[in-house]
Amino acid sequence: MIDEVRTYPEVVKHLKNRQKHLLLGNGFSRSYDDGIFSYNALSEFISKLLTMICINYLRL
């Protein structure tokens, strides 16, 4: 789960010159399947994905 929510200017500063993307939700996804589209589920998915990316990166 996310411990801290950053402001948009903080995120832009952190990303520096990297390309930025915006994910918007309108509720239809959560109506379809809240178990995978809730903010907590998405946060958990990203955390697991980043963990796997780090593990694979360290293997190089």
Labels describing this entry:
60 residues
Task: Give a summary of the structure in a few sentences.
By secondary structure, the chain is an all-alpha fold. The protein has one domain (8-59). 63% of the residues lie in helices and 0% in strands.
Topology:
Layout: H1 8-15, H2 28-32, H3 34-37, H4 39-59
Care to describe what's here?
This protein is mainly α and 60 residues long. 63% of the residues lie in helices and 0% in strands. The protein has one domain.
User: Sheet bearing the most strands, described?
Assistant: none
Number of domain modules: 1
Average the pLDDT over all residues and give the rounded result. 83
Number of helices: 4
